[in-house]
Amino acid sequence: MNSQQLLSRVLSRTAFLSMSVSLLWAVHAKGQLSTTPPNTIVVDFSSTVLVSKSTPTLQVVVNPMIANGSPIHDGTFAALKDLGADYVRYVPWNPYPKLSVAELEAPGSDKTSWDFSLIDPYTRDFLAATEEQGHSTVMNFSTIPAWMFKTDKPVTYPSDPMQVVWNYTQGTEPVDPTNKQIGEYFARLVSWYTLGGFTDELGKEHKSGYGYKFPIWEVLNEPDIEHQTTPEAYTARYDAIVEAIHKVSPNTKFIGMALAFTTANPNWYEYFLNSSHHKPGIPLDFISYHFYAMPDTHENIDNWQYTFFNQADAFLTGVRFIKDIRDRLSPSTKMDTDELGVILPSDIDEIMASKALPDHIPASYWNAAAALYGYLFIEETKLGIDIIGESQLVGYPSQFPSVSMMDYNNGKPNARYWVLKLIKDNFHPGDRLAKTSLGSMSTAADAQAFETPAGKKLLLVNKRNSAVELTLPSDVKSAAVSVIDEATGDGPARVFQQTGDKLNLAPFAVAVVAW
Q1: How many beta carbons lie within 10 A of that of residue 418, not counting itself?
Q2: pLDDT tens by residue, 336-393
Q3: pLDDT (tens digit, 9 = 90+) per residue, 138-180?
Q4: Rounded distance, CA 267 to CA 328, Å?
Q5: In this structure, are residues 262 and 289 in contact, taking their beta carbons and an 8 Å threshold?
Q6: Which residues contact 75 (CB under 8 A, 6 or more apart)?
């Protein structure tokens, strides 16, 4: 069975599971189906589902399109600054070794290769738009220098820092089996940015003059892919890195795992969250894991309206199991889904071809992907997820264009950005989620009511590529509606005053109703 056949079979089972779950949730405890008309929103503000602890945010991945001088550089960092999000994740990563690895060669007897000259401009721009504006960050220099792993021959990398390479993370066994060497590398990197510099392996001082605060450090990225790391090997590596960084930055908290394949191997959670597998005193502050909807090559927007959300439902089922493992083994550990998005098959085609291909992403795709994030925010908030991160600020042809939150053609934020901003500006930890239902067997939309310091609000998501008419709660006589849909394009939410109880949402619209 080829990979496409396997994916198709998985998706068909996921669709069946999604319909079954919808049916079960439609049945009351007394065994009766709800008689509420479809797409009719009923809210009981006297019944609290939970108090939100969820923060919506995003990740910023280092690539040449966010470099100073890029045509979208200024617009990108202006958008990041204007967003004002907390827990923004920053990831210099392996396709660009010179932009992500500060010591590309092993130390010699008389010199080292420490060099931040290409890395610093990206990091300064990021921190100027986040930390210097009073917002928290999650730092993740995710790539271990290749020379720290045993390989048959030295790993090479392009001399051009802007040239992509996809095979930098080679080897499975570290040169130093204690992982002390790896830990010390990251401790020196953190010291460069937080303590004004560090002393290298040969006793030479390197001064930066920086004094940033790194409140959270995420330890590596997608180790279940990189270096074919096992849960046991990762846990040992995590301990070594955390121990070393804590010596130079004692107030930093840590995020572990950042798994690519969230539900492929439950032993990651069983092993890592068991404190007996860690050194004494090693904190388990957060765990993180990722989700991307991935449609079949032959699907189009009419299929995506089902595929995206069916796959999201399967992911959310996995999140419930992860939460149960967390609650059993380490209940104080917080959870962060810091990469949420869609990867279209054309993105993979470009990576396999090592070049940009003609851009055939339809305009409505951006709203579909934005609606997916809106849906995940509602459902993950109800599950008590602490950080809900959209991926990623900038992608572009050859570099995951379908994941971008910026329009790489004109440098303006697209619908994915504007939906995140709409959510971030309206919903915060401490909001009270009221009991909300959407009528018997309603599957085209999702809704959740919040009681906020600014008043009562509804977050609404149209999951379909067709308009849907919703009946608003009976106490909504007049309300302000902010909506992102295809008509808003690369602009912010359209705001209008709603009267009456019928609200029409365009395909893949995301709206906030406030009264």
Answers
A1: 26
A2: 999 999 999 999 999 998 899 998 899 999 999 999 999 999 999 999 999 999 999 9
A3: 999 999 999 999 999 999 999 999 999 999 999 999 999 999 9
A4: 14
A5: yes
A6: 406, 411, 412, 413
Nearest CA among 229, 215, 232 for reference residue 277:
232
CA 403 to chain centre: 10
* Cβ neighbour number for residue 357 with a 10 Å cutoff: 14
State whether the Cα torsion 268-273-277-281 is positive or negative: positive
Do β-strands 445-452 and 455-462 pair in parallel, antiparallel, or remain unpaired?
A: antiparallel
Nearest to 457 by CA among 500, 495, 514, 503: 514
| Separation CA 408–CA 356 (nearest Å) | 13
Helix axes 73-83, 415-426, angle to 10 degrees: 20
- Strand-pair partners of 56: 388
Q: Is the pLDDT of residue 13 over 80?
A: no
CA distance 386 to 374: 15
Give CA–CA dist 332/65, Å, rounded: 38
Residue in the structure block whose two tokens are 């009456």: 500
Spatial CA neighbour of 57 closest among 385, 484, 387:
387
Mean pLDDT of the chain: 93
**How remote is the C-alpha of 276 from its chain's centroid?**
29
Contact (Cβ atoms closer than 8 angstroms) between residue 312 and residue 263: no
CA distance 133 to 82: 10
pLDDT digits (tens, 9 = 90+) for 47-99: 999 999 999 999 999 999 999 999 999 999 999 999 999 999 999 999 999 99
Look at residue 453 and tell me whether its pLDDT is greater than 70. Answer: yes
Distance CA 406, CA 253 (A): 30
Element at 16 (helix H, strand E): helix 3-26
Q: How far is CA 156 from CA 97, 107, 200, 254, in A?
A: 10, 16, 23, 31
Longest CA–CA separation in the chain, Å: 79
